Automatic annotation (TrEMBL):
InterPro entries: HTH_MarR-typ, MarR/SlyA-like, WH-like_DNA-bd_sf, WH_DNA-bd_sf
Organism: Kribbella pratensis
SUPFAM superfamilies tied to this protein: Winged helix' DNA-binding domain
Gene Ontology BP annotations: response to stress
Domain HTH marR-type, chain residue ranges per copy: 14-149
Protein's recorded name: DNA-binding MarR family transcriptional regulator
Lineage per the UniProt record: Bacteria, Bacillati, Actinomycetota, Actinomycetes, Propionibacteriales
Pfam families assigned to the protein according to its UniProt record, in alphabetical order: MarR (PF01047)
Keywords: DNA-binding
Length: 176
């Protein structure tokens, strides 16, 4: 009999999955840094572009939300958005429901630029996964969706906790 869904299953292979996800994230960050270098922009700008790209249409990216997600002041994010807008990566739009809010969206030229850079990665990825069956891809999608939920849940937990700074760090033990 297989374990019920609410019960943890044996950990066989899970440690290797965690390691592979860590390697995937690290490789993605390396590629993002190369994109930043080649575009002459800061890593924080790339992080902002990614947040804008994946923003849910039901909850579009505003300057205030971007500031909160990046952990920056609203003034710093305004400067960041000014820079990205000047370079053609993003555009500002007034929210039709609340004219006081400004929504930040990718500009067509920014999408084209990112597309040219990342299109070869998409080709590499499609080649790497070409032999996967539809059933295997469904399992991978289910795993990635569960992983995203776990990451989001942990981020929300961390966000809800008070920032205790260095008080959570283990005490330093000095030698004789």
């Amino acid at each position: 009999m297989s374990p019920r869904k609410s019960e943890p299953r044996p950990a066989e292979g899970r440690d290797e999955l965690v390691r592979l996800v860590q390697l995937l994230i690290a490789e993605g960050q390396r590629i993002a840094h190369l994109f930043a270098q080649r575009q002459g922009i800061h890593g924080t700008d790339v992080e902002a572009l990614l947040r804008i790209l994946v923003a849910d249409e039901g909850r579009p990216m505003t300057a205030g939300r971007l500031a909160a997600e990046l952990g920056l002041s609203t003034g710093a994010v305004t400067t960041l958005i000014d820079r990205l807008e000047r370079d053609g990566h993003v555009r500002r739009e007034r929210d039709t429901a609340d004219r006081r809010r400004v929504i930040v969206r990718y500009d067509r030229s920014g999408l084209e630029l990112a597309g040219r850079f990342f299109q070869p990665l998409g080709l590499h990825h499609r080649t790497a996964t070409a032999d996967f069956t539809a059933a295997e891809l469904e399992v991978v999608k289910r795993y990635l969706a569960a992983s995203i939920d776990a990451f989001s849940s942990y981020r929300e937990q961390l966000t809800a906790e008070p920032d205790v700074g260095s008080s959570d760090r283990p005490e330093q033990i000095s030698g004789p």
